[in-house]
């Protein structure tokens, strides 16, 4: 029997459960080498592929993004998949299984990152899927899949470079507007231009051709770190996702009169900075206590305000001024607004109320205000049947997560957006969350236990084996 003194108590329990379910320890340890050791090593190898030497940054069609795509493609081939890169830079790996005409199971996540990112966001969903398929290949079962299986590493989910999220998955789902090709980054490079710089020639016509036929797709499954504290608080490695909050991103521009900081009297100023500050505090109040604002508004019933409790969050993440100097009253201030909620009607009510009050405040301050909607995504409900199969796979792979019924596998709502949101326009979706330390994400402090990477890989392996 192999010596295993280095394994944690939780993994020893997983091994015992696996043996009880008919797997030998030898085979389970082989799975560990792929689903844990190799998967974790690949996560950190991918985490070194960055456009910055000081922190992890990998944005749409950057040099690091292209290198990461090539690395992932090599791992796809190692898992026995046929690979290609499409005209939106998505990296695909596919095995046709026994019947190529059957509807395909799609899996994956995104290869891009935020600035100063952690190594697990997005990458975990790609690598766990590839690891599970590699185990099937080693066991000689890959060719026995009843339907095609395809892993997609989406080129952009975060929207950092072009402020337009889901470029990769929205193209596959057929919901990416062709006008997006002409959206430009801060350097003036368009989406189309960035692709052409990497020898990908995309037009409006072949963008539309990227859409998958819904009749060819069975469903989409995504593994992702929770990016929240719930799983850690209950002491469990995995949780099902029942839905994803809807999201709206706004760009608010406040224009006033530029002037000298020392010579313009306070009462004669048309200061856009002070106006923007009042608007930001208004947004905070509106989202902290929506019932105080919406229950008296004919556009929204009190029940809608109540439905927002617990899920509504609003964030101002970026502010810019022009000119930006300590001794100048700026002429213009621009800031972004991110509004998320599980209730789509309630989210629209918040936007309606905020927009109305923006113009009231700007009129009072004699400044001009403009609001642009930069991104909208409706809330998404995960498919009950697909989620049930994913739950069964977790139990079959690692056993009941707890003897205490109250600590059964949690069913969570996601406040963060995921590629599954875009893919829901194409097919039914299901998601599995993986515990992350302190709920921290979008940070170098982002961390997932090696054991939990293994647990997620085993759950996907069991899910795939149900297709054999």
Automatic annotation (TrEMBL):
The residues forming the signal peptide are 1-22
Its needed co-factors are: Mn(2+)
Asked whether the UniProt record includes Nucleus among its keywords, one would answer no
Note the superkingdom of the native organism: Eukaryota
Give the chief site where it resides: endoplasmic reticulum
Protein EC: 3.5.3.9
Give the record's subunit note: Homodimer.
Family, according to the entry, reads as follows: Belongs to the peptidase M20A family.
Kindly provide the name given to this protein in its UniProt entry. allantoate deiminase
Organism name? Salvia divinorum (Maria pastora)
Taxonomy, top ranks, is:
Eukaryota, Viridiplantae, Streptophyta, Embryophyta, Tracheophyta
């Amino acid at each position: 029997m192999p010596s295993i003194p280095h394994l944690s108590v939780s993994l020893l329990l997983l091994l015992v459960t696996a043996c009880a379910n008919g797997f030998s320890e030898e085979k389970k340890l082989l799975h560990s080498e792929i689903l844990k050791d190799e998967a974790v090593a690949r996560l950190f190898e991918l985490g070194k592929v960055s456009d910055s030497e000081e922190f992890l940054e990998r944005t749409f069609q950057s040099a690091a993004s292209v290198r990461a795509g090539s690395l992932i493609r090599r791992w796809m081939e190692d898992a026995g998949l046929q690979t290609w890169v499409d005209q939106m830079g998505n990296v695909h790996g596919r095995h046709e299984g026994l019947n190529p005409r059957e509807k395909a199971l799609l899996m994956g996540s995104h290869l891009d990152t935020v600035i100063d990112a952690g190594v697990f966001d997005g990458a975990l969903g790609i690598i766990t899927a590839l690891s599970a398929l590699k185990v099937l290949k080693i066991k000689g079962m890959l060719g026995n899949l009843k339907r095609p299986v395809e892993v997609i590493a989406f080129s952009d989910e975060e929207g950092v470079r072009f402020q337009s999220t889901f470029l990769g998955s929205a193209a596959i789902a057929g919901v990416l507007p062709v006008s997006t090709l002409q959206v430009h980054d801060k350097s003036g490079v368009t989406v189309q231009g960035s692709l052409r710089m990497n020898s990908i020639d995309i037009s409006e016509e072949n963008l539309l051709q990227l859409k998958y036929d819904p009749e060819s797709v069975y469903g989409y499954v995504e593994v992702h770190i929770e990016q929240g504290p719930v799983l850690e608080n209950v002491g469990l490695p995995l949780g099902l996702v029942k839905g994803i909050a809807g999201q709206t991103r706004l760009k608010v521009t406040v224009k006033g009169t530029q002037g000298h900081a020392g010579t313009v009297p306070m009462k004669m100023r048309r200061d856009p900075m002070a106006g923007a500050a009042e608007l930001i505090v208004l947004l905070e109040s509106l989202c902290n206590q929506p019932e105080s604002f919406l229950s008296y508004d004919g556009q929204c019933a009190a029940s809608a305000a109540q439905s927002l409790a617990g899920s509504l969050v609003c964030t101002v993440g970026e502010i810019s001024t022009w000119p930006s100097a300590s001794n100048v009253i700026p002429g213009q201030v621009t800031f972004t607004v991110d509004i998320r909620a599980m209730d789509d009607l309630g989210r629209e009510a918040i936007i309606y109320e905020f927009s109305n009050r923006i113009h009231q405040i700007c009129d009072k301050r004699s400044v001009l205000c403009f609001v642009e909607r930069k991104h909208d995504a409706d809330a998404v409900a995960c498919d009950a049947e697909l989620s049930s199969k994913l739950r069964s796979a977790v139990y079959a792979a690692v056993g009941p997560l707890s003897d205490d019924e109250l600590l059964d596998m949690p069913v969570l709502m996601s406040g963060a957006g995921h590629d599954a949101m875009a893919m829901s326009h194409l097919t039914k979706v299901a998601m599995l969350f993986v515990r992350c330390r302190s709920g921290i994400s979008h940070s170098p402090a982002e961390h997932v236990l090696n054991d939990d990477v293994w647990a997620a890989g085993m759950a996907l392996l069991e899910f795939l084996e149900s297709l054999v």
